[in-house]
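Example record

One chain of 308 residues, shown exactly as stored in the release files.
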Amino acid sequence: MRSCPAPGLRSILCFGPQNEEVLISMTEATTSPAPYSSIRVMLIPLALAQFICSFAGSNMNVMINDISIDLHTTVHGVQVCITLFLLVMAALMIPCGKLTDRLGRKRCFRLGLSVYGIGALLSALSPGIGVLILGNSIFEGVGTALLIPPVYILTTMLFTDLKSRAWAFGVISALGGVGAAMGPLIGGVITTTITWRAAFVFQAMVIVVIVVLARRLVDPVPPDPGRPFDMVGAVLSAAGLVILVGGILAADQSVALMAGLVALGAIVLSGFFVWIRRREREGREALLSTSLFHNRTSNLALVTQNVQ
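Predicted structure tokens for this chain:
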């Protein structure tokens, strides 16, 4: 990814939760920072977004039997829904990170909230497994892919020094860890005491809270609608990540299948890196800039998210 046209800006890469790789074309503004107290307030909706995305990745595991009985489907059908959610998120995370340059970070964040909220309500009202897949796997998967990149981009832009940025990443990762850990607990309690559908209503309610809090978010860098988009790179990255995540998800079925898919995913991702290096040498916009791996702030984001 080439540098933004405005002076004093640079891009960063980090990796997101659920073991998926995330391209984040983060920009670091060198303009006068906002008051630190207001910046800390803006961190709240970003951290809550990370919480609910992590929550969504784990809470359905305790509802499988109840959902299969209520929707007259099989346990395998519900497991497919969970798997598709992870695959959709993995496939779209890097391209959605790139879209933040063209659409703007705050706009992508709000769009992700809207898509995710629609998915949560569809899931809560599902009359059958088809609508549940549409709501949870597709809408919530796409919403998560749209939400995660702006979380880390805006955090990097708002917290300009390394110490405060490390603290902010720590808060976000902590909320992500809490969401992943509380997903089965909260989902189990709600499913047992009320119904599994109420767990999705809970997600929709959290989204409403984030929407209200997100009104105070500031995007320091204007969007660039004319920014080129590397479609070939997007396809290669999506295919590689889907195959890789699919291999990880196949671990409980066959070790040989898992190893084969992971190896194939690594090959496709290697082809992706060869492609973006070629575009960089030709002076064209790549989906991901390899120079980001040499940036100290990028490495902080990488380590933070991979540990989580």
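Notes: The longest helix spans residues 162-193.
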